[in-house]
Write a structure and sequence with these properties.
This protein is of the alpha/beta class and 463 residues long. The protein has 3 domains: 69 residues; 264 residues, Aspartate Aminotransferase, domain 2 (3-Layer(aba) Sandwich), CATH 3.40.640.10; 108 residues, Aspartate Aminotransferase, domain 1. The chain is 44% helix and 12% strand. The chain has 16 helices and 11 strands. The strands form 2 sheets. The chain has a 7-stranded mixed beta sheet with strand order 1-7-6-5-4-2-3, with helices on both faces. A 4-stranded antiparallel beta sheet has the order 8-9-11-10. A hairpin with a 7-residue loop joins strand 8 and strand 9. It is globular. The model has no long low-confidence stretch (mean pLDDT 94).
Amino acid sequence: MSVWNQLISEIEKFTVDVSDLPVLPIVSPSDVRREIESRYDFKNAIPLESVTADVIRLLRKWTIHVTHPRYFGLFNPSVRQASIVADALVALYNPQLATWSHSPAANEIERLTLRCLATALGFEPASTFANFTSGGAEANLSGVLAALTHRFRDFGEVGVAGIKSRPMIYLTSESHHSFVRIARMTGIGTVALHQVETDERFILDGVKLEQHIQTDLRDGWQPLLVVGTAGTTGAGLIDPLHQIADIAGRFGLWFHVDAAWGGSAVLSPRLRPAIAGIERADSVTWDAHKWLSVPMGAGMFFCRHPETIKRAFAISTSYMPKEVDDDMVDQYTMTTQWSRRMIGLKVFMALAELGRDGYCELIEHQAQMGECLRTRLRELGWIICNETPLPVVCFSHPDIRGGRLTTGDILKTIYDRGRVWISDVILGRQECVLRACITSFRTEESDIKCLIEELEYARKGIT
């Protein structure tokens, strides 16, 4: 069989086979290393067909199958066939998107896709800067750099050393930890991250935010940016975006919404009200590789202030092709990346195949499966620990709260059996709870039933 037939066959078969595979393998690092190192020393050439067959075997055997309909874990979705085709085409043509002139079609395909999604956010596409990123961390970094450049006009020249008053970023314990790295990378330091208390729902407390800003102003800090999260990683929580926007406006802060996962809710008329206020943000992070069912990595960054973006990332070189038209945007002059692959084709092709209504159906189906899980858990005496319309379900049980078993006990039993995958998380730095997220558009009620069976088996077997 030719290597292309091997590849096509596996793409077609795996989508069907994955539901019958164990979700996770039981394997040690030494097992994997021994298998791979015994077969590959890179001294002698091996036919590509043999290597391809071997890689397929290894990935099937030793992978947590995040595209499995019973993978209820991190934000790693089942992927659309259109996006698999797209990534293959990108690998084939290898377009370089650093400059417009090198890839006119690729740049314009991405531009059209981003304009459509900017409209869905409630942004005016004609006055919005947007680009695809490697993921949410890069998009969040872009937001902080934009805020620094917006507030301190000479930040790009003088850096942190030239800032007279130290900038402050406001977030919560539930915010994404990429901001810790961003504080280090930008030089403002983690001391500039001011953690705002959450309320009983574990979302940002607006009253506390305003108090902290006032105190920091008196103490000589420069309030810079406030992060509102639309769908926290741990529990799918949504901060009060309208309230945050009001406070940011009163004090002149940059308002950044980290909607890496929950941003896709804007495509659902039923879920859109839950993240109302996102349209007031100065910048937004949104990952297509989370809830838009495309392969990693496909982050997106949207910003209302294109002139600020130009100042933040502007660069001029003699070795890059020159723009000959004001309508040609060279991405290396506007983003954190330089050389860049065509990240957005998988989003374009999936969006073109499904349309916005088709995406709405996928998103609402997963939200419905989340509600199904909550209902079944409550019926069996489990306790739901988070409030969100998004399909992340955090839960505990009286036996856990009573100390008769732990979340770790439950997970060990579940992992040993390999039929489903869930995780645990600490909410508000208080309670360790179990966490299940619907990440696959292929998840059905039968998969929810299987998860419930595994949870009850583990609980009863331990207690």
